[in-house]
Amino acid sequence: MTDFHTHILPAIDDGSKSVAESIEMLTALSEQGISRVVATPHFYANDESVEAFLNRRQNAFDALVKEIPDSLPAILPGAEIRYYDGLSRLDGLDSLRIQGTRLLLIEMPECKWSESTIREITDIASSGRYIPVLAHIERSVFCQSETTFCRLLANGVLMQVNAEFINGSFSRFRAFRLAKKSRFHFIGSDCHNMQNRAPDIGKAYKILEKKLGKAYTADFIEFANNHLKINLKG
Ligand SMILES: [Fe+2]
Fold first, then answer.
1. CA 40 – ligand 1 centroid, Å
2. N or C: which end of the chain has fewer CB within 10 A?
3. Distance, CA 215 to ligand 1 centroid (Å)?
4. Correct CATH for 2-231 of 3.40.50.880, 3.40.1280.10, 3.30.930.10, 3.20.20.140
5. Distance (Å) from CA 222 to ligand 1 centroid
């Protein structure tokens, strides 16, 4: 199983503060049945160039990878890209795709999206170079009309939810409604540390399986694997 959204790389954003903390997080994820982790540090185009970000990400990745045993989950470098008007024209956007894939994890504003915002996302999708994945969609889906959401899906835009949306005793019912309509495609822990934002994704997969069945969950996991397999051992 995959954790599609994490802040597990050490000392690069507001996530893990050290290699030791990253290893604790990876160990917890491994114990929850996760074998693949996408590392998605925040990227803010206002704050730094893509090149500077990639250098920092490589340093953090190298520092962590040399310390982790093979028994811990494989890490795939990516980014959580904050949306802004003009993102589609960002120099180096290709380099922010999850490594070896066309997937771009994009953090959208938590409000009703304008027509130009929606069109920019569908344009990114229709370019053929990218598959936009909208991060923790539960934060903004309910601000959008049904038509907007269906239009994004019809254009090949994929959706990610955070594990806490499925774990929450009230929010899970909204999650089930979305899941039954195949309105999200990936789950992420969005873990930042081992305290208030610790990894808790194994529970979400179990809840989904209990509610929607083994076949649904197996298909869901296979869909994620198919999108990521280029880089993964198995
Ligand atoms: Fe995040």
1. 7
2. C
3. 29
4. 3.20.20.140
5. 23
Domain coordinates of the chain in residue numbers? 2-231
Taking the centre of ligand 1 as the mean of its atom positions, its distance from the CA of residue 129, in whole angstroms, is: 23
- Kind and range of the H or E run holding 134: strand 131-134
Contacts of 174 (CB under 8 A, 6+ apart): 138, 142, 165
* pTM of the predicted protein model: 0.95
Cα 136 to averaged position of ligand 1 atoms, centre (Å): 8
Question: Using the 8-state DSSP alphabet, how is residue 21 labeled?
Answer: H
- Distance of CA 150 from the midpoint of ligand 1 (Å): 24
Instruction: Using the mean position of ligand 1's atoms as its centre, give its distance from the Cα of residue 4 in Å.
Output: 10
Q: What tens digit of pLDDT does each residue of 44-62 get?
A: 999 999 999 999 999 999 9
pLDDT along the chain (234 residues), means of 10: 97 97 98 96 97 98 95 96 97 95 96 97 94 97 94 96 98 96 95 97 96 92 82 38
